[in-house]
Design a protein that fits this description.
It is built from 19 helices and ten strands. The protein is of the alpha/beta class. It has three domains: about 190 residues, 2-Layer Sandwich (Beta Polymerase, domain 2), CATH 3.30.460.30; about 140 residues, Rossmann fold (3-Layer(aba) Sandwich); about 70 residues, no CATH class. The strands form two sheets. A six-stranded parallel sheet has the order 7-6-5-8-9-10, with helices on both faces. It has a four-stranded antiparallel sheet with strand order 2-3-1-4, sandwiched between helices. A hairpin with a 3-residue loop joins strand 2 and strand 3. The chain is elongated.
Length: about 475
């Protein structure tokens, strides 16, 4: 089989390095997942969260669940769709939280942001999701401060992905952050951090072999088809339901690496399917004619990402044998369909078990990727520290300028002098003093916080340097 180069329309990230599977995976059967009331009534919830957003990095948190301890059914209960995301951001803004975003993919749901404590973000997420908040609290992991920053770098570079090196996640991070920014919920810290993660993702993609081979859910679906339907190129009817990003990527890979063309596209908005079909010489069917098309299919790929199942047992009645690959979270194939003898259903967790011949090679690239992360994370943290110091230095400069202006005013009432020369000299003195202080802080970074605190206190700037 030729070497695979993954199709991806956006170049962005996901992460963690420990590939061990010792954690117990919780399934829907292991927990009571009936929807329960949120911890607090919505108004009380908002009131409970109304705090001034801290700017200390120790108050930057990530809370989430992923594939390591939960199966796809559980993860689907905490998946956040666009409407839920918009409402979550609105609730956060009312509570004074303005620097956060939510990453919801087939393998994880995570919330990143500033809050007094991680539990505030956890409750915010659970208030928007469909699952039991108590179950989420038991299953969730959290990181704070620099650990939270590192986690985002690892997620964004595919080090924490179910398929090591998955390169699709970075586009999902970019989209999630872009949505939050459009709704007034991304501040300077997160915008800078996400941009850094995007840059690191591209560097790792170009300078290491971490993303070589099968590195996405869409790719794994193609490998699964190759294994399950070896004669897929010979008179097999393939239907792709859902022409979003994952659907398009899967379709492109099927055409290029399996050589299939007998693909029929179905999308709720028919114009989207029609356009993609026209670009690639495929067929499409209006959504209203979906039932008849599904009946005739041998292989069905479901990438609709709808809140409710789109494939029901009724669609399979009286039909021949079928293979269905459900690429959606939550599942878009009804559980009852799995029980039909003539239908085999494969979900995203099943896809992660596809034999991966390039895994060992990609594991050997992890140290290189970590080195790149370390370098750029250090640069980001240095920027954050200096930005914090810059606020105090600016206030000191304003204080010195105030002194300068007062002295000039007093001089005007005294002896003769050249005003222009005096103002130029005194302005240079102020700037030199600022440069000296800034240089000292840069040279001795370990003592930088102490120096800046002392300067702030001496000049009584009133700036909270924390």
């Amino acid at each position: 089989m030729p070497h695979m180069i993954k199709h991806d329309e956006d170049h962005f990230l996901e992460a963690s390095v420990n590939r061990g599977r010792n954690d117990t995976v919780v399934t829907a059967k292991d927990a009571v997942l009936k929807r329960m009331p949120v911890f607090l009534h919505p108004e009380a919830f908002k009131k409970n969260m109304q705090v001034n957003q801290p700017k200390d990095i120790s108050h930057f948190h990530i809370v989430g669940i992923n594939y390591k301890k939960t199966d796809a059914a559980i993860r689907g209960l905490y998946a956040i769709n666009q409407d839920q995301y918009q409402q979550l951001l609105a609730t956060a803004r009312e509570a004074g939280l303005t620097d956060l975003f939510v990453l919801s993919t087939c393998n994880r749901t995570e919330i990143y942001g500033f809050a007094t404590e991680a539990a505030v973000l956890r409750d915010l997420l659970c208030n928007a999701a469909s699952g039991n908040p108590q179950v989420f609290a038991e299953l969730a992991y959290q990181r704070s401060g620099e650990d939270a920053v590192r986690h985002l770098y690892q997620v964004g570079t595919g080090l924490d992905s179910q398929i090591l090196g998955d390169y699709e996640i970075i586009g999902q991070i970019k989209g999630a952050a872009k949505f939050a920014k459009a709704h007034g919920s991304i501040g300077t810290f997160l915008e800078r951090l996400v941009n850094s993660v995007l840059q690191v993702s591209k560097l790792i993609k170009n300078e290491t072999g971490l993303s070589s081979g099968t590195v996405s859910v869409a790719f794994a679906a193609v490998r699964m088809l190759e294994k399950k339907v070896p004669d897929i190129c010979h008179n097999k009817n393939i239907v792709l339901l859902g022409v979003g990003k994952i659907g398009r990527n899967t379709c492109k890979n099927m055409m290029e690496y399996l050589g299939v063309r007998n693909i029929t596209l179905i999308n709720r908005t028919t114009a989207v399917a029609e356009e993609f079909a026209g670009q690639h010489g495929l067929q499409y069917t209006p959504y209203e004619q979906m039932d008849a098309t599904l009946q005739q299919a041998d292989v069905i790929l479901v990438a609709t990402n709808a809140p409710q199942p789109t494939i029901l047992p009724a669609h399979m009645e009286g039909a021949g044998r079928k293979l269905i690959i459900d690429l959606s979270i939550p599942f878009n194939v009804a559980p009852e369909v799995r029980e039909l003898e003539h239908v085999e259903v494969i979900n995203v967790d099943d896809l992660s078990k596809v034999q991966d011949e390039t895994l060992q090679m990609r594991l050997s690239e992890v140290p290189k990727a970590m080195s790149i992360i370390d370098e750029h994370m250090e640069e980001f943290l240095y920027w954050f520290k200096m930005r914090k110091h810059a606020v105090v230095l600016k206030a000191v400069k304003e204080k010195l300028t105030e002194i300068h202006a007062r002295e000039i005013k007093e001089q005007k009432n005294g002896a003769q002098y050249n005003l222009e020369d005096l103002e130029e000299v005194s302005s240079r003195i102020i700037q030199k003093m600022i440069n000296l202080m800034a240089g000292k802080v840069r040279r001795e970074t370990d003592k930088g916080d102490d120096y800046i605190a002392m300067i702030s206190d001496i000049f009584e700037t009133g700036v909270n340097h924390e």
